[in-house]
Description:
CATH topology: Alpha-D-Glucose-1,6-Bisphosphate, Chain A, domain 4
Oligomer: single chain
Number of strands: 7
Number of domains: 1
Low-confidence stretches: none
Amino acid sequence: MTTTRTIDPKLDLMLTREIDISASAAWRGWTEPELIKQWFTPAPWKTVGCKIDLRPGGEFMTVMQSPAGEHFPNSGCYLEVVKDARLTWTSALGPCFRPAPAFPDVPLFTATILFEALSDSRCRYTAIAMHLDEAGAQAHANMGFQQGWGAALEQLVALMKKVQSRPS
């Protein structure tokens, strides 16, 4: 199944990078809770909790911890799961596609992460955050989408290079 994404620059934020890990390594980093906890939140923040039910309708939940120790839970619902290629989830829905409550000051969005193999050890990584309106997209941009998601991606790449170099 091929799904085309139409990007609206007024509503959508996008980060694309060619990275020095395979699509399958990037996929692992996104789909194994113990790995996500090591890279998902840009330092000095931490991800202290993660739950993954990797199927359409399954929950994707993280708990971020600020440097001051405050906890920020985030939950969403997977919409699309294509191994080593594509993950889509939304914060507008909870598990089993049930409507989710909105968090104050946090825009609802739907995210797609694309993993495109370029070789056995490189891939093109694209993160897309789609918003309902321009205000939500701007609020997410102002929260540091490019810097934060870029820093987290660098942490993912560094972690997966270490994981791949460990002897089995």
